[in-house]
C-alpha cells in the first residue's frame, strides 16, 4: 500500500514545483509595491549550518523586534527536498552565481551568507518599506512542507544506487553539493554515497573520468559525482540534474563503479599529462591563477594606508614583500603537504572572510573620501582634501617614525594576512594544472621534477602581485609622478575612487 502513497506524494511535489516555476516565470523579479506597507520575503536556511545558527541567534531576533508587523518572512529549511527545489528555482530566476546559505529573497534583492544578513538585511527591508512595501518573490508559493517521504522503501531487495562524490576542503560549491546529496539521500534510501577527498584519491577521479571520456578540463575538478555511466562536475551538480540521474538508475540500481576501474593506468595518465606540461605551460597557468583581485585589493589597501600615514617607500615595499612572501610560502607549504591540519581549521575561513569584509568596507570608504577630494580639487580647495593627515598629526607621525625606525609590526601583520588570504583562495586555484603537480609529488621518480614545477608555479603565481605592490609603492613616492598628480589631482582622485570602489565591490561579492 506504500507505493500509491509515495507516487501520490511525488505527484503533488511535482505539481508544487511546477506552480513555483510558473509563478517565477510569470512574476519574474519585477515585483509591485504593496500599499499595506509590509515587506515580504523568503529566507532559506539549514538547521545544521553554523552560519545560519549565528544569524538566527544574533540577527533575526533584532530584525523581527525592530520591524514587527512591517516584516513577513517565510522560512524554508533546505534539508527538505521541496524547499531546496524552491531555492534553486529562485536562484535560477535571480541569476545567483554564488549560492549559499543562509539566503534571503526580498523584492529584487537576494542576500547570500551570514555577512550579507548582518550588514544588508536591515537596509534592504528599510528600502522596500520606503517604497510602500513589497510582495513575496512569487505569486503562488507553497507553505514550507514537512519532511518528504522517501521514494522507495529501504528493503533488502531494493536495487542499490552506488554514487561516488569527490570534494575538496574549502570548496564552497562542494558545501552546496553536500546539501544536495544529503537531501536526496533522505528521498532515496537505496542511495549509497562514497565521499572522497580528491587530494587523496585523484587517481580514482582520473580513472572514472577516463572511463566516461570526460575532457581534461573536467578531471581533478570538484565537486564531482559519478554514478553508473554518468557524471556531474562543477556547477553541473544541482538538485534537478542529480535527481534526474537517480530516477534513471532507481529501477535497476547502479554498481560501485570505482571497483571496476584500474587506478594504476590513471596514475600513469596523470604523470604523462605532467610530463607534457613544460615550463611555459606552468608559467602560463601560474600567471592566469595569479590574477587575484582580492589579494591585489588587500596589498593595495596596505600600501594606501601606509602612504596615508606618511611611511617611507622602503617600509611600504617591505610590507608588500611580506604579504607576497606570505602568499608564496603558504601555497608552497600546502603543495608540499605541510599545512593540511591548518586547512582543516574552520576558524581560518572565518578569519579570512573577516579580513576580506573589513578590507572591502575600508576600500569603499576610501572611494567615498576620494570622490570628496576630487570635488574639492576641482573647486580649487586642495587644503580641504581629507585623504591625507592634518599637518600637525603628520609631523607627529614623522617624529615617531624617526624615533622608532622601521615598522616590523606592519610587516608581521602583512605576512600573516598573506598566509590567511592564501588559505581562503586555495580552493579556487589551479583546477587542472596545480592538482596534477600535487598528485605527481607522490610519485618518487618524478618528485624532484614536480617540486621544481611547484616552486616555478608559485613564483609566477605571485608575480602579478609583485608588480601591483611595486607600482603602487613607487607611485606613492615618485617625484615626477607627484608633479603629475598635482596638475591633475581631481581626475586622479576620481580614478582612485573608481579603483577602490571596484576592489571593494569585488571583495564584497567574494565574502557574500
Give an overview of the whole structure:
This protein folds into 3 domains: 2-130, Glutaredoxin, CATH 3.40.30.10; 161-261, Glutaredoxin (3-Layer(aba) Sandwich); 271-351 and 387-474, no CATH class. The strands form 2 sheets. It has a 4-stranded mixed β-sheet with strand order 2-1-3-4, sandwiched between helices. The protein has a 4-stranded mixed β-sheet with strand order 6-5-7-8, sandwiched between helices. Helices cover 62% and strands 9% of the residues. It is built from 20 helices and 8 strands. With 512 residues, it is of the alpha/beta class.
Give the secondary structure arrangement, pairings included:
Layout (H helix, E strand, L loop, with lengths): L1 H26 L11 E7 L4 H9 L1 H8 L3 E7 L3 H14 L8 E4 L2 E4 L1 H17 L30 E7 L4 H16 L3 E7 L4 H11 L11 E4 L2 E4 L5 H11 L13 H28 L2 H16 L4 H23 L4 H4 L2 H33 L12 H14 L3 H18 L7 H8 L6 H15 L1 H13 L3 H9 L1 H23 L1
Parallel strand pairs: 1-2, 5-6
Antiparallel strand pairs: 1-3, 3-4, 5-7, 7-8
Helix pairs in contact: 1-4, 7-9, 9-16, 9-17, 10-11, 10-13, 10-15, 10-18, 10-20, 11-15, 11-17, 11-18, 13-15, 13-20, 16-17
Task: Summarize it.
The chain has 512 residues and is of the alpha/beta class. The protein is built from 20 helices and 8 strands. Helix 11 (313-335) runs parallel beside helix 15 (408-425) and helix 13 crosses helix 15 (408-425).
Amino acid at each position: 500500500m506504500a507505493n500509491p502513497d509515495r507516487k501520490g506524494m511525488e505527484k503533488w511535489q511535482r505539481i508544487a514545483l511546477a506552480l513555483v516555476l510558473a509563478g517565477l516565470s510569470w512574476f519574474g523579479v519585477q515585483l509591485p509595491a504593496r500599499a499595506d506597507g509590509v515587506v515580504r520575503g523568503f529566507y532559506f536556511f539549514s538547521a545544521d549550518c553554523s552560519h545560519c545558527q549565528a544569524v538566527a541567534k544574533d540577527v533575526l531576533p533584532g530584525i523581527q523586534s525592530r520591524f514587527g508587523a512591517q516584516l513577513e518572512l517565510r522560512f524554508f529549511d533546505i534539508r527538505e527536498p521541496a524547499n531546496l527545489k524552491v531555492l534553486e528555482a529562485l536562484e535560477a530566476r535571480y541569476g545567483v552565481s554564488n549560492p549559499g546559505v543562509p539566503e534571503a529573497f526580498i523584492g529584487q534583492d537576494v542576500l547570500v551568507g551570514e555577512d550579507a544578513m548582518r550588514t544588508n538585511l536591515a537596509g534592504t527591508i528599510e528600502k522596500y518599506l520606503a517604497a510602500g512595501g513589497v510582495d513575496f518573490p512569487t505569486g503562488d508559493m507553497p507553505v514550507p512542507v514537512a519532511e518528504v517521504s522517501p521514494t522507495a522503501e529501504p528493503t533488502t531487495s531494493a536495487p542499490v544506487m552506488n554514487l561516488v562524490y569527490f570534494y575538496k576542503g574549502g570548496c564552497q560549491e562542494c558545501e552546496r553539493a553536500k546539501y544536495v546529496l544529503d537531501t536526496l539521500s533522505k528521498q532515496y534510501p537505496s542511495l549509497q554515497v562514497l565521499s572522497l577527498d580528491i587530494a587523496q584519491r585523484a587517481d580514482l577521479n582520473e580513472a572514472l573520468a577516463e572511463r566516461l571520456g570526460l575532457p581534461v578540463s573536467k578531471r581533478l575538478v570538484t565537486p564531482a559525482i559519478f554514478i553508473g555511466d554518468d557524471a556531474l562536475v562543477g556547477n553541473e551538480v544541482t538538485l534537478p540534474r542529480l535527481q534526474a540521474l537517480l530516477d534513471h538508475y532507481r529501477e535497476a540500481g547502479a554498481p560501485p563503479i570505482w571497483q571496476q576501474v584500474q587506478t594504476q593506468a590513471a596514475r600513469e595518465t596523470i604523470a604523462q599529462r605532467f610530463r607534457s606540461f613544460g615550463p611555459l605551460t606552468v608559467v602560463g597557468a601560474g600567471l592566469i591563477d595569479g590574477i587575484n583581485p582580492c589579494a591585489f585589493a588587500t596589498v593595495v589597501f596596505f600600501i594606501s594606508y601606509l602612504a596615508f600615514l606618511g611611511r617611507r617607500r622602503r617600509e611600504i615595499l617591505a610590507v608588500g614583500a611580506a604579504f607576497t612572501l606570505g602568499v608564496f610560502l603558504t601555497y608552497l607549504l600546502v603543495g608540499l603537504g605541510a599545512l593540511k591540519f591548518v586547512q582543516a581549521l574552520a576558524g581560518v575561513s572565518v578569519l579570512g572572510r573577516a579580513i576580506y569584509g573589513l578590507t572591502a568596507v575600508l576600500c569603499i570608504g576610501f572611494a567615498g573620501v576620494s570622490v570628496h577630494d576630487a570635488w574639492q580639487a576641482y573647486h580649487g580647495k586642495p587644503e580641504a582634501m581629507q585623504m591625507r593627515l592634518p599637518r600637525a598629526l603628520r609631523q607627529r607621525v614623522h617624529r615617531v617614525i624617526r624615533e622608532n625606525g622601521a615598522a616590523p609590526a606592519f610587516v608581521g601583520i602583512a605576512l600573516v594576512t598573506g598566509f590567511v588570504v592564501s588559505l581562503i583562495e586555495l580552493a579556487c586555484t589551479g583546477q587542472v594544472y596545480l592538482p596534477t603537480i600535487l598528485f605527481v609529488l607522490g610519485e618518487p621518480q618524478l618528485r624532484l621534477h614536480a617540486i621544481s614545477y611547484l616552486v616555478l608555479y608559485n613564483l609566477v603565481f605571485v608575480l602579478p602581485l609583485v608588480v601591483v605592490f611595486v607600482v603602487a609603492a613607487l607611485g606613492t613616492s615618485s617625484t615626477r609622478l607627484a608633479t603629475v598628480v598635482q596638475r591633475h589631482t581631481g581626475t586622479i582622485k576620481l580614478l582612485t575612487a573608481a579603483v577602490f570602489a571596484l576592489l571593494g565591490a569585488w571583495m564584497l561579492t567574494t565574502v557574500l
